[in-house]
Amino acid sequence: MQHNEGQERSSNNFNYGAYHSLEAIYHEMDNIAADFPDLARRVKIGHSFENRPMYVLKFSTGKGARRPAVWLNAGIHSREWISQATAIWTARKIVSDYQRDPAITSILEKMDIFLLPVANPDGYVYTQTQNRLWRKTRSRNPGSSCIGADPNRNWNASFAGKGASDNPCSEVYHGPHANSEVEVKSVVDFIQKHGNFKCFIDLHSYSQLLMYPYGYSVKKAPDAEELDKVARLAAKALASVSGTEYQVGPTCTTVYPASGSSIDWAYDNGIKFAFTFELRDTGTYGFLLPANQIIPTAEETWLGLKTIMEHVRDNFY
Question: What is the pLDDT of residues 242-259, one digit of tens each?
Answer without folding.
Answer: 999 999 999 999 988 999
